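Input sequence (300 aa), recorded before submission:
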Amino acid sequence: MQRVFAAFFALAALAATPATAALNVLACEPEWASLVLELAGDRDEVSSETTARQDPHRIEARPALLARARRADLVVCTGAELEVGWLPLLQSESGNARIRPGQSGYLEAAQYVALIEKPEVVDRSMGDVHAAGNPHLHLDPRNLLKVAEALSARLALLDPANAAHYAARRQDFDARMQASISRWREEGAVLRGMRVLVHHKNWSYLAAWLGLRVVADLEPKPGIEPSAVHLAQILARLRAEPAKMVLRAPYHSPRGSDWIAARSGVPAVELPYTVGGSARAKDLFTLFDDTLAKLKEAAR
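Predicted structure, token format:
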């Protein structure tokens, strides 16, 4: 029951409902709802289809979600097949032609970013592998600047009367984000080269940006929960390649990381992953503030 209320309040915190909204914007994930709010302020109605404690790979297109999609002028998603299990159904069953692929009412962040970890071949035996590349792109804050440029332009296209408003807020966002990236780079210098374990490959962009070295994934294949045998193999590997911590997202089971922590002394660290993933991560800026703080604390 506590999780239900936590999810409700996290979603409510990401929703802005002005009296006379220019646009109704529906984001697939909290990070994009937060970015829309940065660029639109109180001009648009903004909500997220998911919360930080929901795995964005696995969402059900329930009637309430279909109703929100039916009213949306713009749907903003990650793309790169992150939402492939539910978004196509949402787009088709909502009856809203504006938000279908190729229409101005649908924007994929992955189209504006150079994705990493693109597999040469893909088949079902490999687990939950994304042919287009790793979709968890928002955890390199430099990617947010690229998406913000495209999103600001799309908001202006759909709402030309407020184009100057979106442009001014994007300029302000860029300045604040650039300054924050410089600060985070300095704060994160002590983490460069640090070895870590990860539950899932959703930390790859964060690791590349901060210079973390991923020793191993707890999942034997993406999307497959770790078995006792696989965890034992990782534990043995740690003797040759010690790690400082094991990272997981709020929506992942703690069992695997806690198992490793109990037997190795390597702390299990839950990072916020997205906006709403911790009490401190209330927007995109505090998301990275809290992420850096938790990494530095665990590295001591």
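Checked by second reader. The chain is about 45% helix and 10% strand.
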